[in-house]
């Protein structure tokens, strides 16, 4: 296996160092495997000391937990935004587009790690309430209302999972992040069909 190139970077702010650690760890965990990667290797990848690494995270488990917590907070912010919007015909399309874009922007690398490290995921992030599926349920209710037929609720839930499913389908292929986002959006569009207009992705800033 080719040696991972070490990254040396200028002095970072604390929040940037934390984000850099998360992304470097994800890359190493996905490439080498969670169990085969040490905290020392993560520090070396970033060109920082182990003391600097441990200042932000006391273990590999803490890094992964922080990533998923950050993802859940971002979904909560999106759900809060949707709950505060007027119930216009365009809202479901805009909300689903924002959900897909957020999943692609913030969750793709995390999903790839999870797909490549099933055993570690079961240990580090055991199944519990208040996770992604609880938020998907809330999102489906926001999109459809509380009394929608089960078949409609399942279709919307599948649309909300489109990026996750596209990541799984892309394993073993040369699909890029853009490819995954494109096919996930197409799949979501087919799933919501006659329920509301196709998801409208936000314009990149």
Explain what you see.
The chain is 68% helix and 0% strand. It has 205 residues and is mainly alpha-helical. It is elongated, with a radius of gyration of 19 Å. The relative contact order is 0.12. Mean pLDDT is 86; it is low at 1-11.
What's this model, at a glance?
This protein has 10 helices and no strands. It is an all-alpha fold.
Write the layout of secondary structure elements.
Layout: H1 14-32, H2 39-46, H3 50-56, H4 60-83, H5 91-116, H6 118-124, H7 132-144, H8 150-160, H9 162-170, H10 177-192
Which structural class best describes the helix and strand composition? mainly alpha
> Number of DSSP strands?
0
Number of domains: 2
Strand content: under 5%
**First-residue to last-residue Cα separation:** 37 Å
Shape, per Cα inertia axes: elongated
Calculate Rg over CA atoms.
19 Å
Q: Provide the helix percentage.
A: 55-70%
Run of helices and strands: HHHHHHHHHH
Q: What is the typical, i.e. mean, pLDDT?
A: 86
Q: Which residues form runs of ≥5 with pLDDT under 50?
A: 1-11
Number of helices: 10
Strand count, sense and barrel status of the largest sheet are: none
Structural descriptors:
mainly alpha; Arc Repressor Mutant, subunit A; single chain; Homeodomain-like_sf; disordered N terminus; elongated; about 200 residues; about 70% helix; 10 helices; TetR/AcrR family transcriptional regulator; HTH-type_TetR-like_transc_reg; DNA-bd_HTH_TetR-type_CS; DNA-binding
């Amino acid at each position: 296996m080719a040696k991972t190139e070490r990254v040396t970077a200028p002095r970072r702010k604390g929040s940037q160092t934390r984000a850099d650690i998360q992304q470097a760890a994800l890359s190493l965990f996905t490439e080498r495997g969670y169990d085969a990667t040490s905290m020392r290797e993560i520090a070396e990848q970033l060109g920082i000391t182990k003391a600097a690494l441990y200042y932000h995270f006391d273990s590999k488990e803490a890094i992964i937990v922080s990533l998923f917590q950050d993802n859940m907070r971002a979904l909560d912010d999106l759900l809060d935004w949707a709950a505060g919007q007027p119930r216009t015909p365009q809202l479901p399309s805009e909300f689903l587009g924002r959900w897909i874009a957020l999943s692609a922007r913030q969750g793709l690398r995390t999903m790839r790690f999870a797909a490549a490290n099933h055993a570690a995921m079961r240990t580090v992030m055991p199944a519990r309430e208040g996770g992604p599926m609880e938020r998907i349920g809330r999102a489906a209710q926001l999109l459809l209302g509380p009394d929608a037929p089960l078949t409609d609720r399942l279709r919307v839930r599948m649309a909300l999972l489109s990026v996750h499913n596209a990541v799984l389908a892309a394993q073993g292929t040369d699909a890029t992040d853009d490819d995954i986002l494109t096919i996930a959006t197409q799949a979501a569009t087919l799933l919501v069909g006659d329920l509301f207009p196709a998801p409208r992705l936000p314009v990149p800033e």
